[in-house]
Write a structure and sequence with these properties.
The protein is α/β, with parallel strands linked by helices. The chain is built from 13 helices and 12 strands. It is elongated and about 65 Å long. 48% of the residues are buried. Bound molecules: beta-D-galactopyranose and calcium ion. Calcium ion (CA) binds next to strand 6.
Length: 327
Amino acid sequence: CADKPSESMTPDPIRIGVTLYRQSDTFISLLASDLLDCAKARETQDNVKITLNILDGTGNQGTQNEQVDRFLAQGYDAICVNEVDRTAASVIIDKARAADIPVIFFNREPVEEDMQRWDRAYYVGAIASESGVLQGRIVSNLFNQNPELVDRNGDGKIQYVMLEGEPGHQDAAIRTEYSIKTVTGAGISVEKLANDTANWQRAQASAKMGQWLKDEEIGPRIEVVFSNNDDMALGAIDAYRAAGIEDLPVIVGIDATPPAREAIKEGTLTGTVLNDAKGQAEAIFELAYALSTGWDVKEAVPRLEGQYVWLPHRTITIGNVMQEFDD
Ligand code: GAL
Ligand code: CA
């Protein structure tokens, strides 16, 4: 029965299963806690009981598949999957379809052919190219307004290094491409000194950056550190600190996590791009809730376009960080 539960009945709790690719990921853990907030708010507002079961895929697709199997076997109302391996969606979609339990992927986008296997498979995320463009614009604007702040050796070019997210993740390759394209598209020449993956992780980025700083052909020449996310940008800052270098180059990240916001205020991080964890969590939850209760999905999530929900990004620098967040 798809009717809105009335006050007089005590309906069964709604059960929504969530599996995360890796709970220790900073951005993902923020999104997970926003999901819990959404569920609590709905419980109060609609006077319903909602069980939101959030599991950690621990970076292992086999583990995550077992978690999905359990949710399906237990007849959950909807499942939300932040895939470990985003190319492995077809297996999950086929099983969910067989069990007729809707599935919402988020943050790690399945390939389109997989999404086409079932119209009750959804994806909630942010457009990767947009985050890259906005990150590139922070650098090109700074260069155009104050070239000497960026172009330290005065050769008219930006010497840069790139810290990349996990290979195979849509956000890694696309952010890398579009941030640089945006800078060169603004008429600024660039010279890449080094690039490598640090898998979204602060410690890995710090180690990588530490190696570059020791290399005389790279370290002293770095004018901009582009990082596919904030945790790795913070790792770069850690490496400069560990090397005893106080005069930092321009460093830009993506996500706008609380520690990154702090770093902007303290002047070590030049800027970031808000990856809207809260907006994405709301869309994921409202979609799951509507699918569980039989309410109209388009009404629940007006941003829904077909099977996709796209949340916009925003640029965050010292100019607006205080106004945008009350921390
Ligand atoms: C990205 C985010 C990264 C990391 C990754 C995990 O969108 O910017 O910080 O959380 O997702 O899939
Ligand atoms: Ca230069």
